[in-house]
Design goal:
This protein is an alpha+beta fold. The protein has a 3-stranded antiparallel beta sheet, with no helix packed on it. A two-stranded antiparallel ribbon has the order 1-4. It is built from 4 helices and 5 strands. It has helices spanning 52-65, 71-87, 91-105, 109-127, and strands at 3-7, 12-15, 18-21, 27-31, 37-39. It has 2 domains: 3-42, no CATH class; 46-127. The N and C termini lie close together (11 Å). A hairpin with a 2-residue loop joins strand 2 and strand 3 (18-21). The protein is globular. This is Probable flagellum biosynthesis repressor protein FlbT.
Length: 141
Amino acid sequence: MPLKLSLKPGEKFVLNGAVVQNGDRRGVLVLQNKASVLREKDIMQPDQVTTPARHIYFPVMMMYLDEVGAEKFYEEFATRLNEFMGVVRNPVVLQDCIAISKHVMAREYYKALMLSRKLIEYEDERLGHVSSGVSAGGDAG
């Protein structure tokens, strides 16, 4: 099933590791086969990895963007997820953590990434952090 991306003028996204930027008008991109696509709003820079949930999101994002080299990021992901689960008591959040782990084990990195975003939202609510680069919602896949 094709993936249709509606792009804002100048919007950047990563497509199979390449940074691509839309022109000066709105545009539509239709991907006919499987590809790793991540919109600019979903990309976290290393300097934005400042909280435990972001320490989970970042290696999942890297696994998604670099599936061939995913094992380089797995240990960091597993360590950080384990630490996070050790301090969280909310059963819904713990279920999300388990689901993230299952998605990563199945190499379903985009699904894991979108669930990881929920951890950031939970953390922001609890800790009162201002969002730092990863917005809620998303429509790339």
